[in-house]
Specification:
Elements: E1 8-13, H1 18-24, E2 25-28, E3 33-45, H2 50-57, E4 65-69, H3 70-74, E5 79-82, E6 91-95, E7 97-98, H4 99-107
Antiparallel strand pairs: 1-3, 1-4, 2-3, 3-6, 3-7, 5-6
């Protein structure tokens, strides 16, 4: 199910670099756009607070992560789709956005 609510919180676990984005995507096209990069997403409007971060990291424990709102990705032409997994209702996939754009979005709020 596509995410259209720009206030959904998106979390990418791990140390976010251009290489980790490229290597984490299922595929990258000739224009350096990523397809099917795993992220965690709130199931509706969320806040970038400790409770949300803890909830999103539950399925992918990691001391390093980066946050953004879905609108930052959508506004650059990217798409985000919920892709629930067993025991992980917050799993989603980011596609159709360049590695550079996605890195620039995530580098603002890296931990």
């Amino acid at each position: 199910m596509p995410i259209t609510n720009k206030k959904v919180v998106i979390l990418r676990a791990g140390i976010v670099t251009k290489d980790s984005i490229k290597n984490g995507a299922e595929s990258v096209d000739t224009r350096d756009k990523v397809y099917n990069l795993s992220v965690q997403a709130t199931l509706g409007t969320g806040r970038q607070d400790n409770a949300t971060i803890t909830m999103l990291l539950a399925a992918v424990p990691n001391p390093h992560y980066a946050l953004t709102f879905a609108g930052s990705i959508i506004d650059k032409g990217g798409t985000i789709e919920y892709a629930k997994l067993d025991n992980n209702n917050n799993h989603a996939l980011v596609s159709n956005i360049s590695i550079d754009d996605l890195y620039d979005i995530f580098k603002i709020n890296k931990h």
